[in-house]
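Thread: Newbie trying to understand structure tokens

Hi all, I'm a second-year student working on a class project, and my supervisor (Dr. K.) asked me to get a predicted structure for one chain before our next meeting. I've only ever worked with sequences, so writing a 3D structure as a token string is new to me. If someone could post the tokens and maybe explain what I'm looking at, I'd be very grateful. Here's the chain:
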Amino acid sequence: DGIMLLADDSGTENNFPAKVPSTVEEYLAAFNGGKMEFSITSEEDFISVQNLCALPEVNGFEGVKLTITSSPSGDGTMWDITGIEGFTGIGTVENPFKGTLMCGYPNGSVRFYTNKPIVAYLGDGGKITQMDIACETDSDGNAPVAAVAGNINGNVTIEDVWIRGTIGNGTDTVGAIAGNIDADSKVDIIAVKVPDGATLTVSGAIVGGIAGTAGSNVIINMDDDVSIGTSGNEIALTGTKAVGGFFGIATGNHSWELTNSYTYKATTDDDGNTTTDVEPNKLVVTIKGTDSACYMGQFAGKLQSDASGGTLTITGGNMIEVNFTTST
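---
Reply by user tm_fold:
Sure, no problem. This is what the structure looks like when written as tokens:
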């Protein structure tokens, strides 16, 4: 485990695609020629992706897969995103990232160290997958932050992502997966977890186990080995204004049907007898409000109305376990 083969700059080794172009002219020539996959092989490539995504003619890399195929650590086992000068996150509010961003190697092989969301704005059709993210985020509060995406707008997928570390945003919104989810968005969360033996601490003004804030009619689909926090490695959520297991503040009308997925654990004794334990996967969080006026709740710390109203209806199973603590 952890032994990696790296692609060269051409991207041809190991059957990886060629590296992402550095100019819009080169990118459009490749894209219009049918090229739909590119490799990220260097810090400069991250900057190229950030700069290209900001251009309207690139259309947020819609339909394009970007695969991270090597790292600058020398042994290929880590990416220190914090050290990329000028990198502020992929996507803008006008041109969010709509493609697929993934690591070319299984989780546990390459770890990404971040102090900001790798994707600043994730848009309709966007997907983040096969990433092992270690956060050391202490934001100045100028924008929503999280491990994966600062802002989500549209139908997106977060799949096979490991998250750990600390995410802080003292005066703004913060979540484990997204800082903010816009109204009418749908987020598929599949096989996302805090790895065994790791911890995740999320703190700020408005804090959620999934996102700090969510607009009206947001749909969250959690299935297939969802264990963002499990007993023994819970997510610790601490906020000053609002803290919730899913969202710090949810605005408008929300109706969620929660369906547990299950983990099957087989144990075989010395005589060859096998027994199987079935455990539902849950979002397990510890919630703490550090101000007496802080709103705290199992699903949402605070539910507020917009033009459509303000209701929260929960049906189905129980996919969340919350431990409330008080400020000392």
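A couple of things are worth pointing out once you decode it. The two ends are 43 Å apart (CA to CA). Confidence is low (pLDDT under 50) at residues 1-13. Feel free to ask follow-ups in this thread.
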